[in-house]
Structure formats: C-alpha cells, structure tokens
User: Fold this.
Amino acid sequence: MNAPLWKTPAQRERERALKREAVLRAAARAFSEQGFHRTSLDDVAERLSVTKPTLYHYVRGKDEILFECVRIGLERLDSAAASAEARRSGGSGLDRLIVLWTEYAHIVTEDFGRCLILVGEDPLPAETRKDLRALKGKIDKRFRGLIEAGIADGSIRPCDPKLLAFAAAGALSWIARWHDPAGPLGVDSIADQTIRFFVDGIGAGAAG
Amino acid sequence: MNAPLWKTPAQRERERALKREAVLRAAARAFSEQGFHRTSLDDVAERLSVTKPTLYHYVRGKDEILFECVRIGLERLDSAAASAEARRSGGSGLDRLIVLWTEYAHIVTEDFGRCLILVGEDPLPAETRKDLRALKGKIDKRFRGLIEAGIADGSIRPCDPKLLAFAAAGALSWIARWHDPAGPLGVDSIADQTIRFFVDGIGAGAAG
Assistant:
C-alpha cells in the first residue's frame, strides 16, 4: 500500500508539533552555547537549514522561544517531582529524593533544562518572568514536601528543608555549567557521586 | 590645623581609586538586579547621583565595568583560596576547606561576587572571557588541591576532588541566586548549614 497523497489533519498537527519542537530545541542549544543576546533567529534558522521566514510558522520571535524553552525545562522538573510525590511505594523519603535528584541532573543537562539553567528567564519582560517564577515556586514546594516526608519517616536527619532543597538544586544545576557532554564523565556517574556527597557526607567521621 | 587647600598626588590617587570602586560597585548591583543588557550607563550614573560623562573619568564603558566586576569577584575567591592553602597550621584539610567554603558563601553574596555568579563573563567578547576563564581555572585548581590534601590527611573520604569542588561551588553559589539580604536568614547561618549537609551527610545513617 502506498502512502496516501494527502495527510489527515491529525498527521499535519503532529508534524507541526514535531517541527516546532525542533525549532525550540535548536534555539535552546544556540542560547546555551552563544548566549541569548548573541543569538539571532538567523542563527537558529541556519542550524535547521531553513530560512528565517520558515521559523515564523512556528514561533513569533526570540522572546516566545526562550519562554517556551524555560517553560519546558521547568515542566520537566515539575513532572519529575510530581511523580516522586506520587511514588508512595518507592521507599523512604530519602530513597524517593535520590531518584528525583538523579532525574534532576539529567533534565538540567539536556537541551531545555540546560537553557533553563544557563540562560533562564532573566532576559524576558517582567510579565512573562512572573509566570515562570510561579512555576519555579511550585517545583520548590514539591522538593520541600519530599524532604519533609523524609524527615518525618526518619530517613533524613532534621534540617531546614528549604536550605537542603536549594543546596541540592545548586550542586546539581551547576553540572549544566561545567559538564562537557563530549568529556569522559557521564551524567549518571556525576549525579550519583554528587548525591552521595550529600547523603553520606564527605567527612571521615561520616558513615560510608 | 586646617586641611591643606591642595591634595597631594597620593591623596588624589587614593580618592580616584575609591570613586572608581564606587562606580564598579553601583554597576555590579545594577547588573545583578536588572541584568547586564537591561542596565545602561545612565542607570549607573543615576544610582550614584552623577552624570554619565563623570563615569567616563573612571571607566571606558559597560564591557570594561563588567570585566572588572567579575575579575574582582574572582580575585576575592582566589585570594581566599590562596590563604586557605597557606594556612598549614589551620587544622586538617577538611577544617581548612570549611573555613574557605564559608568565605566563599560570603564572597558570592557580596556585590562583586554576586555579579560574578548572576551575570558572569558570558556577555563579554570572547577575548576578554578567555582571561577570566583562566582565572577561574586557577581557582578550581586551588580548591581541588585542598580537597586532595584533606583526602591525603584522612579528614575527607576518598572521592573525585573535581566533583566535590564543583558540587560545593554549585551549592554555595546558588545562595547568590535565592538569598534575600532583607530576609530572616543570614549568610553565616545558610553557609554553615549548607556546608554541614556535605560534611556530615543528610542520611539518618550518616554520622551526626
């Protein structure tokens, strides 16, 4: 059977979504590598071997692209955190946090998460920044809730959940700043060792 | 005795240096609060209640200012690390690291260090970025050396010094992103708790 000459509306919709994601992903890479202000839509078009007018079928401009890149990065963190919350049978609070922190490291070293960490919402107008910051606040809350659950079930020693959430977010987000995807260290191994510093402690007196 | 009518060359030089630092500091604050691209020299002049032409007595333009702000932030980290290296009588490698990490937290939450973390060298032309990155590399080396010394003297459990240096730098630098100087938590307390997560571990199985 030959492929039909005309696509169905559903096929067209799906294709359009895939192309839009390809535009956003190419832009996310360009922003992370060159910086937001140094990246033009022409650069993005060139990375996709299309013309700039083609991009306008999918996005309105650079601000919308950055908003979407940051939003997608945040949505991924949020959905990872929501799954960790829902995973009641996934062991202690600490066990669930370790799984979530590992996912966090992967998300922030992938295209959209990397753009979230390296560029973020700062270049955007105040009004759009507000929406993204609200989403960040929601994610922070989920992390703190999981830490509180770990303290409550005795798997995490009593501490300020806000400070622990930020310390881990900082250590893991930093990977996006220094990790060379072409280098010898894989994200899994980096994430594992970084998380172990927190969980077991580095002092010779801490448990191993 | 009255103040002399004419200043000595040394007095004039000292006054000029103080004024230049005031310009850089006002700019560092503006860059951190508003972003580099959204800050104009007029904004900086306004913060100092002087005119823009006055600024040009001290700096050539925005790029030079950002370069200097980032360089000063890095120099402070470098000199803190150099002191920690020199402090041979300051206890174990881990003890010296704890002192250094505490200083690190203070440096990155002060004007120049904050600008280093929140803005950094990314907006600058490639050639100037290179100089600052060389300085960063030097600082990284000092941190790794101290961690190696701690592993050698048995105060730090064997680990990858590069990964530990980055994990701590990330956790502590992150403070510059979320800490509200007007809020209830002081930098000393935040630094202390953040460093304790690493040193003692958060797991209930870790030593307390």
